[in-house]
């Protein structure tokens, strides 16, 4: 890290001490032009990724999947099956890589941990009164600690959107700092719930707020509101992690979640990562897809590329 | 690393003939004196087809055919019937858009992404738009019963061959004129495919005539006494010569000429989108755009930051095979144009501006020029004053809005300008003061058939597009 980024980093770390300083900084970030951002995202979607590049992208995308189930109806049996799939997505092909992580509710963490123990697949747990985050801070932190104690090595927290939209940035900041502390060694993904933040300016501010407060990843959505991950929102977040690393030297990951269902979609995101932040982020440590049905489409396209023919959906496991 | 594998668009969708005649009076005919020239692919220098060169007698035949069609068929035809033909042409263009896009990229060198996503959709949109006007001319604001002018001689450039054809032919035909059009000598092929579309649409013979050839053909055409209207898009020098030649005649003239547009970035601009706009402004179509944002005026207090972002973005531009779907910047259209770009760029270096290009491998064959920016440019540099018409951006700085306006207007041209700021009131203040026919705010190179386009000063006169575009083809 250079001297300038060291000093910039210490200056930026002071921001969280005062509401005014945070507000001044966040509102001083360059604005986002909605039309321009959407146009750029659409342009990146026109890249044509074929043959060898497609094969490479599919395997990378599989390794980046956070295989997710977040239902009231989740049971130990259901999440164990999902964890088994995470380890061996395509039982017919041992060369198929495993996914990045399994993502479940805190109560399901022990059951997943049993299956994943000893593997390289991470165990992510949502926490902090997911998905609304509308609970007292103490309860959110207890939720986080319980998930880590049960074996989660990644925590997906939600920010306090109510406080953010009301302009109480320090409250949002402090909650992230507290959750980071409660997470211990676990990686902290900060869910911005961009569908509720509504504007790209807000998305950029919330991204910076989460990074300043110590988040290891910024994540678009819970998947529980009508608008989940979109290309332009993810573009704005990628620009934020790029600029943040430039300013501080610290790299932060990005996780679009919700609504990414096809191989085509996943490849568009990888192209966007490649051309916005570059190869440093083309790695499961720095980019993830929060998804469930995406995996089977990736497997289907992978089989098509290796065998030359499409197999029916019955050839891929439903867990 | 994530390397994109080659993704070439198929050439086989285009059925190129070895040679093409002139399209006169509804049929392809050989030129009277048998002259011809070759059209090449600027990305590989391979010969695509041999094309007839029209001489004086061919011009005579074409103008006579257009006159006859005007007097007997097209002029008297009710607007609603003319509209049917224009709608039919528009639909055929859409149906054959892939073929037209591939041919445009082959003959011009522009990336297929642009010919497919920009040129062809706009071409069809122009025909659809003016088809709608054909039976509504009395509501266009030019009086109760506006009449067409007669035979239009139209000469178009090589940078957007089919789009410029559409800008010329669609309003002319909608208003009831007939046309003789000369495409540029380096890019005649899509105009000839358009002639086939006219046949396919059963357009009456003589309404559209296409004469291929070089400068001499164009001169003979615009100077022909049987022509009532001249429309030209191209360089300011040729435009001047045309203006001189039609002076003292009753011919109506519209000119769309060069430009040296300022793209003005204020310190409160949305930086990431402004950088996209700068890239789109100068590297779109290899900078072969008369309204290209070839002068970047950036507020001094954000200049470093903007330039750093711009360079990072330029390093992502993919230069190469125009038919590869992932290519961003294609080939320079001709050896002569490449020479001009080189000459002016060398002058930029010689006059002390600092030159930068991202690392990029250029193909061995064909005409190529890496995306280039010059920093430390002042108003006195040639690269700040002369139109380069290539992928070369001159970067200047300013301190205040008034200085930005002064520098932006300090050019003999006045075709377009761009403003990047988050402040709406400043956009309006600037737009009032910029002497440019088109002012884009927080975007650049946006085109739409409903919007008039044209210049101030040496960028020409008359407007194309929109309701205003009808005026040049009506006797008003």
Automatic annotation (TrEMBL), chain A:
Q: Which GO terms describe its molecular function?
A: deoxyribose-phosphate aldolase activity
Pathway(s) per entry: Carbohydrate degradation; 2-deoxy-D-ribose 1-phosphate degradation; D-glyceraldehyde 3-phosphate and acetaldehyde from 2-deoxy-alpha-D-ribose 1-phosphate: step 2/2
Main enzyme class? lyase
What InterPro entries does the database record attribute to this sequence? Answer: Aldolase_TIM, DeoC, DeoC/FbaB/LacD_aldolase
| Pfam families in alphabetical order | DeoC
Alphabetically ordered keywords of this record: Lyase, Schiff base
Any one GO CC term of the record = cytoplasm
Which EC number applies?
A: 4.1.2.4
- Report whether Lyase shows up as a keyword of the record: yes
Q: Which reaction does it catalyse?
A: 2-deoxy-D-ribose 5-phosphate = D-glyceraldehyde 3-phosphate + acetaldehyde
Q: Which GO terms describe its biological process?
A: carbohydrate catabolic process; deoxyribonucleotide catabolic process
Its domain of life reads Bacteria
Q: Which family does it belong to?
A: Belongs to the DeoC/FbaB aldolase family. DeoC type 2 subfamily.
Name-wise, this protein is: Deoxyribose-phosphate aldolase
TrEMBL record, chain B:
The record's annotation in Pfam families points to:
Aldedh
Task: Enumerate the active-site residues.
Answer: 256
Q: Which GO terms describe its molecular function?
A: oxidoreductase activity, acting on the aldehyde or oxo group of donors, NAD or NADP as acceptor
Q: Which UniProt keywords apply?
A: Oxidoreductase
Where's the Aldehyde dehydrogenase domain? 29-476
Per its UniProt entry, which superkingdom is the organism in?
Bacteria
Protein family according to the UniProt entry: Belongs to the aldehyde dehydrogenase family.
Q: What is this protein called?
A: Betaine-aldehyde dehydrogenase
Source species, please? Micromonospora arida
């Amino acid at each position: 890290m250079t001297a300038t980024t060291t000093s910039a980093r210490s200056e930026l770390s002071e921001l969280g001490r005062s509401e005014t300083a945070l507000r001044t900084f966040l509102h001083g970030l360059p604005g986002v032009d909605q039309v321009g951002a959407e146009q750029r995202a659409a342009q990146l979607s026109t890249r044509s990724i074929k043959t060898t590049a497609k094969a490479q992208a599919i395997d990378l995308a599989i390794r980046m999947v956070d295989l997710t189930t977040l239902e009231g109806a989740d049971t130990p049996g259901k999440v164990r099956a999902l964890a088994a799939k995470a380890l061996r997505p395509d039982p017919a092909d041992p060369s198929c890589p495993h996914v990045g992580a399994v993502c479940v509710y805190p109560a399901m963490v022990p059951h997943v941990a049993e299956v994943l123990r000893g593997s390289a697949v991470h165990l992510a747990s949502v926490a902090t009164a997911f998905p609304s985050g509308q609970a007292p801070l103490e309860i959110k932190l207890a939720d986080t600690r319980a998930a880590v104690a049960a074996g989660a090595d990644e925590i997906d927290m939600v920010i306090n959107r109510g406080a953010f939209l009301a302009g109480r940035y320090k409250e949002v900041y402090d909650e992230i700092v507290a959750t980071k502390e409660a997470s211990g060694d676990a990686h902290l993904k900060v869910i911005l719930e961009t569908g509720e933040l509504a504007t790209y300016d807000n998305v950029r501010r919330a991204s910076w707020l989460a990074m300043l407060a110590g988040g290891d990843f910024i994540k678009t959505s819970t998947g529980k509101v009508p608008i989940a991950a979109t290309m332009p929102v993810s573009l704005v977040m990628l620009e934020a992690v790029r600029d943040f690393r430039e300013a501080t030297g610290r790299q932060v990951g990005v996780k679009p979640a919700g609504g990414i269902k096809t191989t085509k979609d996943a490849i568009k995101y990888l192209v966007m990562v490649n051309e916005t932040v570059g190869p440093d982020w083309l790695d499961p440590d720095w980019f993830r897809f929060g998804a469930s049905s995406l995996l089977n489409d990736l497997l289907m396209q992978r089989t098509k590329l290796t065998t030359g023919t499409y197999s029916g959906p019955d050839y891929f496991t439903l867990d | 690393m994530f390397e994109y594998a080659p993704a070439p668009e198929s050439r086989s969708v285009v059925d190129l003939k070895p040679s093409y005649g002139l399209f006169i009076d509804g049929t392809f005919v050989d030129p009277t004196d048998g002259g011809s020239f070759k059209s090449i692919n600027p990305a590989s220098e391979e010969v695509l087809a041999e094309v007839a060169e029209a001489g004086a007698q061919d011009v005579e035949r074409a103008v006579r055919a257009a006159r006859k069609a005007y007097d007997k068929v097209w002029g008297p035809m009710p607007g609603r019937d003319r509209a049917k033909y224009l709608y039919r042409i528009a639909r055929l263009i859409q149906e054959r858009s892939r073929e037209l896009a591939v041919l445009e990229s082959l003959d011009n060198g522009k990336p297929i992404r642009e010919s497919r996503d920009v040129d062809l959709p706009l071409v069809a949109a122009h025909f659809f738009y003016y088809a709608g006007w054909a039976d509504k001319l009395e509501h266009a604001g030019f009086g109760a019963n506006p009449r067409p002018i007669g035979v239009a001689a139209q000469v178009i450039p090589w940078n957007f061959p089919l789009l410029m054809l559409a800008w010329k032919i669609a309003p002319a035909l909608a208003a009831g004129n007939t046309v003789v059009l000369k495409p540029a000598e380096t890019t005649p092929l899509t105009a000839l495919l358009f002639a086939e579309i006219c046949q396919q649409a059963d357009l009456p013979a003589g309404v559209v005539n296409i004469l291929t050839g070089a400068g001499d053909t164009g001169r003979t055409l615009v100077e022909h006494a049987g022509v009532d209207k001249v429309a030209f898009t191209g360089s300011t020098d040729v435009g001047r010569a045309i203006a001189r030649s039609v002076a003292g005649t009753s011919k109506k003239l519209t000119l769309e000429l060069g430009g040296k547009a300022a793209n003005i970035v204020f310190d409160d601009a949305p930086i990431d989108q402004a950088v996209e706009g700068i890239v789109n402004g100068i590297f779109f179509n290899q900078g072969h755009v008369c309204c290209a944002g070839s002068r970047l005026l950036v507020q001094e207090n954000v200049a470093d930051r903007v330039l750093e972002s711009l360079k990072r973005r330029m390093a992502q531009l993919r230069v190469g095979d125009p038919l590869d779907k992932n290519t961003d910047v294609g080939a320079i259209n001709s050896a002569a144009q490449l020479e001009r770009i080189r000459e002016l760029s060398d002058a930029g270096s010689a006059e002390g501006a600092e030159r930068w290009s991202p690392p990029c491998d250029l193909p061995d064959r064909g005409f190529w020029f890496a995306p280039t920016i010059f920093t430390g440019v002042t108003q006195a540099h040639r690269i700040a004053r002369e139109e380069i018409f290539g992928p070369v951006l001159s970067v200047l700085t300013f301190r205040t809005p008034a200085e930005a306006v002064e520098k932006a207007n300090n050019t003999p041209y006045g075709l377009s300008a761009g403003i990047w700021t988050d402040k709406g009131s400043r956009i309006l203040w600037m737009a009032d003061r910029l002497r440019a026919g088109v002012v884009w705010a927080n975007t650049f190179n946006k085109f739409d058939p409903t919007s008039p386009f044209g210049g101030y000063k040496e960028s020409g006169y008359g407007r194309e597009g929109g309701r205003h575009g009808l005026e040049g083809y009506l006797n008003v």
